[in-house]
Amino acid sequence: MMKRVPVLALLLWICLLFYVGTWIFLSGFLLVKVEVNRNSSCKDKPFSKQDSSHTEHFCWSEPRFKRAVILIIDALQYDFARFDPEIKDPRPFQNKLGVLSEVVASRPAHARLYPFRADPPTTTMQRIKGFTTGSLPTFVDVCSNFGTNAIQEDNLIHQLGQNGKRVVFMGDDTWENLFPNQFHRSLPFPSFIVKDLHTVDNGILQHLCSTVESSDWDVVIAHFLGVDHCGHRYSPDHHAMADKLTQMDQVVRSVIERLQNDTLLVVLGEHGGDSQKETDAALFLFSPSALFTVGQEKALQEVVPQIDLVPTLAQLLGIPIPYSNIGKVMVELFALGSPEDGSAQERRQAEALWINANQVNRYLDTYSLANKDLSPMILAHLKDMFLLATTEYKTLFGGPLAGGPEHSSRVQALIATLQLYLNQVREMCQASWARFHPLRMAVGNAVLATACALCFITSDFADVVGASYRRLLWIPVVSGTVAGGGFALWQFSTGSEVEVLSSLGMAALVSQLSFFWNFCRRKATRVFVHQPSDLLNATADAAQQRPALTWPSIPLTIFFLRCASLFSDSYVVVEGRVVTFLLSTLAIYIPVQMNWAGRLLLPFEAQKSAPPCLPLQPSTPAASSSYKKESLTLLGCTGFLVASLYSSHFFHGCRDEQGNCKPSAFLTPLSGLRDIQLRNFRYLLSVSSVVAWVCLVRRWMRHYGNMNSKSPAVLVARCGLPLVATFVSLYWAMSSAPAEDFGNLQEVVRLALLVFPRAVYVLFGLGVAVVCWDPLTVFLKSRKEPAPSLLPPTYRASTGVSLQAELQHLIPHIYQRMRKSLRAGEREGAGREDDGQPTMEAYGLGTVYSAPLLLVLALLGLVLAMLHPEGLMLSFVLLLLQACAILHMHSAATSLSTPGSRAGCVSVSWAAVLMWGLAATQFFYSTGHLPTFPSIQWNSAFVGLSEVHAGHLAPALLVTLNTFSSQILFAVSCPLLLLWPLVCESTKAGKRGRRAGEGEDGEEAVMEMKLREDPDRFSTALLQLGARYLFIHGAQLLASVCSATILRRHLMVWKIFAPKFIFEASGFAVTSVCLLLGLALVMRVDSAVSDWFKRLIPAHSR
Amino acid sequence: MKDIEIKGMVSAHCIIALSIVMATIVPAVLLDDFSVYGTHLVWLYICTAGVAAVNIAVYTLLGVSPPAKKNTLSHKVAKVSKSCLYFMFSCLLFHGIVVLYGAPLLESASETFSFAVLLSTFTTLRCLCILGPNVQAWIRVFSRNGAMSIWDTSLQITTASSVTGAWLGAFPIPLDWERPWQVWPISCTLGATLGFVAGLFIAPLWIHWHRKQLTYKSK
Lengths: 1102, 219
Known about the structure:
Chain B: It comes from Polyodon spathula (North American paddlefish). Chain B: It is found in: Endoplasmic reticulum membrane. Chain B: Its main location: endoplasmic reticulum. Chain B: Pathway: Glycolipid biosynthesis; glycosylphosphatidylinositol-anchor biosynthesis. Chain B: It is a multi-pass membrane protein. The complex is a heterodimer. Chain A is mainly α. Helices cover 58% and strands 6% of the residues of chain A. Chain A contains 37 helices and 13 strands. In chain A, strand 5, helix 6 and strand 6 form a beta-alpha-beta unit. In chain A, helix 1 runs antiparallel to helix 37, helix 12 runs antiparallel to helix 13 and helix 36 runs antiparallel to helix 37. Chain A is elongated, with a radius of gyration of 36 Å. About 12% of the residues of chain A have low confidence. Chain B is an all-alpha fold. Chain B is built from eight helices and no strands. In chain B, helix 2 packs parallel to helix 5, helix 3 crosses helix 4 and helix 5 runs antiparallel to helix 7. The longest helix of chain B is centred in the first third of the chain and has 29 residues. The interface between A and B is medium-sized, with 30 and 19 residues.
């Protein structure tokens, strides 16, 4: 019996180690915040002043300004904005924005310039989010409605709209996505093209001044991109930057000239990045009416956090502060009043701060109800502080106005307390939402790295590991569980909170260490264990062991390059092309290496009179022709593979970062096409691809005689597969036509759009269930003529090609004859021609393992294709063909490199596994996917589901299936790498000599039956294959985790590396699950085959 | 015997390498506004022509190529025309492979083809010079036991290093450094050229280093 449970358990354990490592890293890297979707409004009474001495015609506070102009100059650093007259020879970016300093110097009560800092993570979108909502940006804001970019949290723009302010926007079109339909007027310009310095800016300039002069607005927001693009394109030290800054100078000047007294001007730079210098942007405030108290300026302005702008602007404009704001008002802006009346100034400041503190306190209350990630102790402390301040505020300002120095000092103390409170709130939130957790990241990296090493060892010493599951699987698992459980218990007993994460990390590390320790001991003692038991096997193993230690260096290099490419943002952007480049290198490497080893072309070797380095050189003409055929197959498949790699580029989508790139036309759904003829043509193309898909699979099965029997699995292939294909095509037909074409039938169409996909799901489920229940596709046929000898019934795997019913009887006989005569010709000196006359013939036994696998794959492929835009069916057919080419290359290479010996057949080379793994990534891109969140194909979420009652689980599952369809297909079909060389052997099965001294005389196990003959080796080979495939994906995951760790302060981390890491991690999870399912299916087939033999052969045969 | 051969190889390789250096320096002196990046194709053609001429001259003078069985004029003409045909064919083959590796198909096709010609000069032309127009022999040379003289070994090394250089040359293209040499096909041609030159120097050194292990069978 073959070891099934231990193999799966070992692989599952490795997967779990990877999951734990990823999870620990994730918890330290991705900072999650729950969005609170509540809005502030004027009616929130607690914020209005207790004394209603005057009527409240305003909201929370009295507005200081009616209107505001907000100019956002992307990447305007503080250095750019300062004017230093002492610099004699200014660099291109220095001293160009003279207007800011000029105004500050000449009108100190009206203007001030601050350094301005954004919190990481800082992509443009997140920064805009930061200074409109006043909340700290995190990478993943858990919100109810993912898939759209629109800001769900309460924000300034929303509040402005609520309170009847007309907001006019112009510039970067990111705003339009973030605040759809919230502007009174908007003039968005595309922001993608980094090389274009002028489009956005000139667009704004055309409209800005005329807008400011008109009266049709309350708030104008203009977002300039030129400076940022210039910085990216040329670097700040370029004369283009000087031109750009001079232009901005003119803009600010002309806006200042046109401002009226009730208007506030805010100029702010915004930029994120690594160093202090890059993060500190400039903030400039100006108003024609007095804004500051003169004489209070400090020599060095303190840095204003980005979010502080939100409550400040809200209070200056007299609108409610957004609900989720945790910023602090800039108090010096509220110190207005007659300069001699200090108490009035302080009163205003205290009021502004108190309103702010009230709002923050309310937000913290709501947030701590929704999520527990803020420390309760600090929260309680803050609450106390706030209550004290409230009481003090009420006693100070609740009653009649008092005066005197004592009162004044108490007010100042109150202001200080409120400021301290707000600062502490922000610090707490930053610690929880905006800071990495280095220890967790390090532990996650360590667990992942060890898991990779473990995976590599398992794959290279699969025979060692396979021989001692007790030591190498159960002991580590048990010790890990004990360690993790003990750690949790210790935490529990000492009274602190039980951290699941740290216990899991502990468990993973301990079990890994235990594996390595046991492995080293096992390896030391192994030689003595093995040799006495079966000498022959052990020596064969030892011979096999040596080359297993040296990894072929070129595949290693290519894989190393692949992993290294994940560390560069440019390579991640063009990853689809990087992978095909490396894959075609690998494809060309294989025949070149074959030639180098002298295995590709026999004739030359034959001329060279059989060099001694090649054992068992077949020199008969038959063998040489077989050689030639294999070589031709290899070369042909290489050519086809490279061509299909090239054509897979036609299905790629485009990232924002790729400048002049057009997404593939196949990615647009057919319903989006206007041209009817084109649409029909494209539909026909898709349907013919479906037909091709089904025909290819059925043809393969028929070729290997898997379509003859009457078993349910064959029924699935005969009827289920075409039926699924029909439903898929019908669904596409329904969904591709525009709704208005149907007129009265719209209801029917809507029903059909639900029914067809559901029918596909049901058929798929049924098909897979049937295949799992009875996976055998073997047709058994008794021989008509009685057997000449009285041998027990034996089996024979045959490739009966029986296309028509009447031929079914004829061809097997002819085939048997041919084989017999061939064998007779082959065997030299052995006079046993007429032994092993079989009494039974089994058709399709040679592919008994791969046929069900292929059948499931065909069904799965159709379901996955249905979730994609119709045009991508073409890409799926390409995937099938390319996978086939890789398999043929692999089997040809295997049989060329191990002529005559069978040892290599059950071990899959690194090159083949690597090609398989890279192809999975390649088709991730060629099915139109990209590792970015906006590019997820959300349409697939509701295929066959009504949008109302769908819930969350089913759409999420469908989107996962859609996104990782390539990884799923390649992972499930991974066992084919092991089976295919044996399947391909059938072409030369007749030429193979018999094995001596094994089993009954008449038995000749061919093709996949060879695996059944040797269950131990089969299970070892499955283990090795699984571990290698996991290693390929696990090492890529490790590389992306490392890149995210090392480059966590990189400018592009939140735009490129973090999404890449998340896609890689989810891809790994999907891959590992599907790999286990594929292996489990093969094992299910194996058990079914065993049962079948038990029924077929009476006890004496085996 | 072997030492003399290695010395001959060193001088031959030096001359070939010198031709590349001259192809870079001489036009820069003679022509106005010549630069390797700016007028890349001009440099490429001059370099190709120089290397081709020097290669043919050196190997004809050295008499490395296999002795012709019939030394008649018609035979020679047939051989030369066959060589030209092979060279053209290898240019097309390299062009196809480079396109399949991701070079643009239609735009800058002339650059791609020039690059293919350069690669053919570094690899196929040397095969033609050393082995003659004999595909069987070419395939034989590129196997582990296939080298039959130190020239075959040097051919293995230079070919492998020029192809590897061209392959490595593709790496900087996607990076966002905005350098002039990142434009297709400059980095690849430079990579191939550097690889070729490196191969020219490595080959005699390697042969010298392994002269004990290298045993050549007679043809």
